[in-house]
Amino acid sequence: MSPADLVLTPTGLLFHGRRFPVTRGRNGITDDKHEGDLCTPSGSLRIIATLYRPDRLSPREIPPWAAPIGLKDRWCDAPDHPDYNQLVTKPFGQTNERLRRADPLYDLVMITDWNWPEAVPYRGSAIFLHQWRRMCHPTAGCLAFRRDHLIWIAGRAVPGTRLLIRPDRRLRSEEG
User: Fold this and answer.
1) Percentage helix, strand, coil, to 5, in the chain?
2) Radius of gyration of the chain (CA)
3) pLDDT above 70 covers what percent of the chain?
4) Rounded to an integer, what distance in angstroms lies between the CA atom of residue 52 and that of residue 40?
5) Residues 21-38: pLDDT tens digits?
6) pLDDT of 53-91, one tens digit each?
7) Do residues 74 and 94 lie in contact, with contact meaning Cβ atoms separated by under 8 Å?
8) Strand ranges for 113-159 from DSSP E
9) What stretch of H or E contains 153?
10) Which of 18, 2, 20 is nearest to 143 (CA)?
């Protein structure tokens, strides 16, 4: 483990010597992730991309390697589709999640390599790091942060940064 790793602990996310409040999946952390379980998967993930809303963030708030979210950008969450767990564009007939949302949740989103690039059907799609709705409000499996904290993290993470997530039982013994 390195200070350059993002490490989820029971008391927050550790990164570059700082601890950030974070919310995770409504049903906790699991070793057996599957689509729709509302869990955050355990394991060692990597940051593969960062997307942002250019109409809502200034250039100084985003890392230089981030890409803008387009008006038609979606994320395919249809487990039986060949584009499952991939960035797609509208029109897209299968189920998908709109990335350019009316709310601020995806104004800045860091994408992990969970079940990517070769997605296993029903193993779960898109584990993102994104802005939270409010403190302590759980996600569908992603990790969510206060806006200024997410901007700070994104400004220091690079493609390939590790995200270490362990089931709570192991985290408690490591912290203690």
Assistant:
1) 10, 30, 55
2) 15
3) 93
4) 22
5) 999 999 999 999 999 999
6) 999 999 999 999 999 999 999 999 889 989 999 999 877
7) no
8) 128-131, 143-145
9) helix 147-156
10) 20
